[in-house]
Amino acid sequence: MRTQIGIIGAGPAGMFLALLLQSRGIECVVIEQRNREYVEGRVRAGVLEQSTVELMRHLGIGERVAREGLVHRGTHLAIDGKLFHIDFAALTGGKTVTVYGQQEVMRDLYDAAVQRDIAIVWDAEGVTLSGLEGDLPAIDFRHRDALEHIDCDYVVGCDGFHGVCRKFIPASVLNVFERAYSFGWLGILADVPPANPELIYANHERGFALASMRSNERSRYYIQCPQNEDAAQWPDERFWDELCLRLGPEIGAKVTRGPSFEKSLAPLRSFVSEPMRWGRLFLAGDAAHIVPPTGAKGVNLAVADVRLLSTALEQYYKQGSSRGIDNYSRRALERVWKAERFSWWFTSITHRFPDMDAFARRLQIAELNYIQESRAAQQVLAENYVGLPLEVD
Ligand SMILES: Cc1cc2nc3c(=O)[nH]c(=O)nc-3n(C[C@H](O)[C@H](O)[C@H](O)COP(=O)(O)OP(=O)(O)OC[C@H]3O[C@@H](n4cnc5c(N)ncnc54)[C@H](O)[C@@H]3O)c2cc1C
């Protein structure tokens, strides 16, 4: 098989890239180790930046998110149960975010890929890459007991944090920057109406809590807990009790309890690997960087990477210019680091850290009080949360 761009991974980065390339007349094949049901079923991100929603509309997959997505003009922060509001739209010239689950995004992407005849190889095993330093990179893998080989012009690793592509960059070239957190988020999904029409990020002395949702009928709640916590130790009633305590009496009283149908622990991690290009290999999305979910940036960063890369590849194929692909890593990383900074900072002011003494706690509360009182501080939060600008060329 021969194609122009070989994409490893059919998550958000891989599928947005495939649709962007197809819309620009560039051939690609997507190679995914799992099947569609598995990837579509993974419960992950839920907050889309406005630019992500606009891209969906531009790609012709914006109908359902326009109909079913919940547009949020702001969010709430809580300090030990006392709420205050951040008005994104007023602070950013009208920008908003949209609550629409990653599972729904994947469904829209896959439906469009099927309609547009984009080739996706599901259940591909043992992906290896070769020729990345020369002119003829290739992808080898097993599929239904046969060995497959694809020659291409470029390979894009969209295979997430645990993928293989990053490992093909020599250790002498790769720089990894990492911050591990000793806590994670225990999250549940339940078919009960949300406690509040907008998200609530709650800083409580027992730890962080987030009141979120997937729709007006489906709630998504998280509580901070130790990273090695066993979700089985948290029967629903224990979870609801702790959540209500951390959200405080005002919001706690508005929480509708019900049986959870999903309960899992997500670790928190900050991670960047540089560069995002080596020879004929590009990395995009979680393959190159991870953020703690506090800033709701993961999926949006993946989308920003592939917007930049698809424009660069179009310049390469249509204008014969390699300027965009040569600058891809530098430009993507500049923006990635800003999102890393924001996600780290937002985590640091909302979570309880194990080594936190009374002084550190007072500083945290002072910072939240300052945000509450200062329009300038709110604006900094708002413009990062709704998404920093992305110049694609
Ligand atoms: C539990 C959890 C909760 C999250 N919550 C949020 C949130 O609330 N907000 C937010 O913004 N972000 C959140 N994220 C992050 C967000 O989901 C990711 O940033 C986003 O999925 C990144 O997309 P991606 O395409 O880069 O990687 P992925 O979604 O990881 O997709 C990579 C794809 O590559 C495939 N793959 C891996 N290895 C190979 C291989 N060797 N060969 C072929 N295919 C391979 C995988 O099966 C997968 O389908 C969460 C992540 C997790 C894990």
Structure, described:
With 393 residues, the protein is an alpha+beta fold. Helices cover 37% and strands 28% of the residues. The chain contains twelve helices and 20 strands. The protein has helices at residues 12-23, 36-41, 50-58, 63-68, 88-91, 102-115, 236-247, 249-252, 298-319, 323-350, 358-373, 375-385; strands at 5-8, 28-31, 47-49, 70-72, 74-79, 82-87, 97-99, 119-121, 125-130, 138-143, 146-151, 154-157, 175-190, 200-204, 207-213, 219-226, 260-274, 277-278, 281-283, 289-290. The chain has an eight-stranded mixed β-sheet with strand order 6-5-14-15-16-13-17-20. A six-stranded mixed β-sheet has the order 8-2-1-12-19-18. A hairpin with a 2-residue loop joins strand 18 and strand 19. The mean pLDDT is 97. Residues 8-14, 31-34, 39, 44-47, 102, 124, 127, 158-160, 163-164, 266, 285-287, 293, 296-299, 302 line the site of flavin-adenine dinucleotide.
Concise synopsis of the structure shown:
With 393 residues, the chain is α+β, with helices and mostly antiparallel strands. The chain is built from twelve helices and 20 strands.
Bound molecules: flavin-adenine dinucleotide
List the uncertain runs: none
Side-by-side strand order of the widest sheet: 6-5-14-15-16-13-17-20
**Helix share bin:** 25-40%
Please give the largest β-sheet. Answer: 8 strands, mixed
Instruction: Indicate the proportion of strand residues.
Output: 25-35%
Straight-line distance between termini: 32 Å
Mean residue pLDDT: 97
The 3D shape can be described as globular
Number of strands: 20
Helix/strand/pairing class, anyone? alpha+beta
Provide a count of the helices: 12
Radius of gyration: 21 Å
